[in-house]
Specification:
Elements (H helix, E strand, L loop, with lengths): L2 H11 L12 H7 L2 H8 L3 H8 L7 H14 L5 H8 L4 E6 L6 H15 L3 E6 L4 H13 L4 E5 L5 H10 L3 E4 L8 E6 L1 H15 L4 E5 L5 H16 L9 E3 L4 H12 L7 E4 L2 H12 L10 E6 L12 E4 L2 H16 L10 E4 L2 E3 L11 H11 L1
Parallel strand pairs: 1-2, 1-3, 3-4, 4-5, 5-11, 6-7, 6-8, 8-9, 9-10
Antiparallel strand pairs: 10-12
Length: 380
């Protein structure tokens, strides 16, 4: 075969091979995108991109959104280690929750992470599971990673955990209560308003015998919710027999056990308010195994308004404590403690409201005329 024939042979083979240059590979393109590409895409200066990426609070929010949109579109990967060396900050936030089996906490984690990432922070998440040894390990890991601040969203503060974090002197955010120290910020949940609305709602329907399933009374949040219930009942002049107050575990199993205890009484309360939705779901399950129907025989109210609440049978009336509002406040409070020029740097407390969401697990008390009329109409 001549040299010319060999060359022709090669020319017929090469076009059938799918050859892709290194620069065309999407991952490589993303890796080579520069801060200049981001600036050009967003239509801003390189300095503005730098300030936005580093979370400088003086950057106009609209400009910051444009910059982060451009970062995503061009595939720019900011060097977090370099940024930490320059700024002295890791741009990492710690988030500690009690457990992840309760749907409330994964919902809170998701909201917190979405907000933090959108504002140029990474998130290190840990769950204590109320285990002191696990908590020790979690704290050590967060300190080793040099987080800029920690939000302790446990709704039941372990004193050892508080002290270990406070001793380090970096920004902290607590729920309900925290040490009166310079860089400690607190999210104050207004349990009273939502629970007052729930008790008033039940009283307006005609309920006078209302039980309460609390959370573990070693937790401040559980005590706060129980006390808010007792206060709301007293305001309406309603009596609370001791046997109508049952301590649960903020779990479905705890709700089942507590409702079984109430169902064993000679007269079951016509309504039961639960300290959280998981307890309320457990109460619904316990009643399902009896002759008592919800809401015909017993009205049930939860607390938290987890996503699952609206899909229960019947859909659960509950007091909403918004995960999104909590997450917004927690990220805002952490940034206020971390960033010297943050507009809320001097603010030490954030208020979190609660509100009643009425669904189908509450109705008129059994035996009353409205309940009898409603049941008769339903049978037609």
């Amino acid at each position: 075969m001549s040299g010319a024939e060999k060359n022709r042979k090669k020319s017929t083979i090469h076009p059938t091979v799918n050859v892709r240059s290194k620069s065309s590979h999407p991952r490589r393109r993303a890796g080579h995108a520069s801060i200049r590409d981001v600036a050009a895409k967003a239509g801003v200066s390189i300095a503005t991109v730098s300030r936005a990426v580093n979370g400088i609070p003086t950057v106009d929010p609209e400009l910051a959104r444009r910059v982060w949109k451009a970062v995503e579109e061009v595939g720019y990967l900011p060097n977090t280690q370099a940024r930490a060396l320059v700024s002295g900050r890791s741009r990492m936030l710690g988030l500690i929750v009690s457990e992840i089996t309760n749907p409330f906490f994964p919902e809170l984690v998701q909201e917190f992470e979405n907000l933090a990432v959108a504002q140029g922070y990474e998130v290190l998440i840990g769950s204590t599971s109320y285990d002191p040894l696990r908590t020790e390990s979690l704290i050590r890991r967060m300190l080793q990673r040099n987080v800029d601040g920690v939000a302790v969203m446990t709704f039941g503060i372990e004193e050892d955990l508080v002290q270990k974090l406070v001793d380090r002197g970096f920004p902290l955010v607590f729920v309900d209560a925290g040490p009166q120290l310079e860089n400690i910020r607190v999210l104050k949940v207004n349990y009273g308003e939502g629970i007052r609305q729930a008790v008033q709602h039940l009283a307006a329907l005609g309920h006078r015998e209302i039980g309460f399933i609390s959370g573990p009374l070693r937790l401040r949040s559980a005590v706060a919710r129980r006390d808010a219930f007792l206060k709301a009942m007293r305001e309406l002049g309603l009596k609370i027999p001791k046997q109508h107050l049952v301590e649960g575990g903020h779990t479905m199993e705890g709700g089942i056990a507590a409702m079984e205890q109430l169902a064993a009484l000679s007269a079951l309360p016509t309504a039961v308010l639960c300290s959280n939705d998981m307890s309320a779901i457990g109460a619904l399950h316990a009643l399902y195994r009896t002759t008592h129907k919800v809401p015909d025989d017993v009205s049930i109210v939860g607390f938290d308004d987890i996503h699952l609440a609206q899909f229960m049978l019947p859909p659960l009336t509950t007091v909403q404590m918004s995960c999104k509002e909590l997450a917004v406040a927690a990220v805002d409070a952490l940034r206020a403690g971390i960033e010297p020029n943050h507009p809320k740097a001097r603010q030490m407390e954030w208020q979190i409201d609660t509100r009643l969401v009425v669904r189908q697990s509450t109705a008129f008390p059994r035996g009353t005329l409205p309940a009898v009329v409603k049941r008769a109409a339903a049978k037609r």
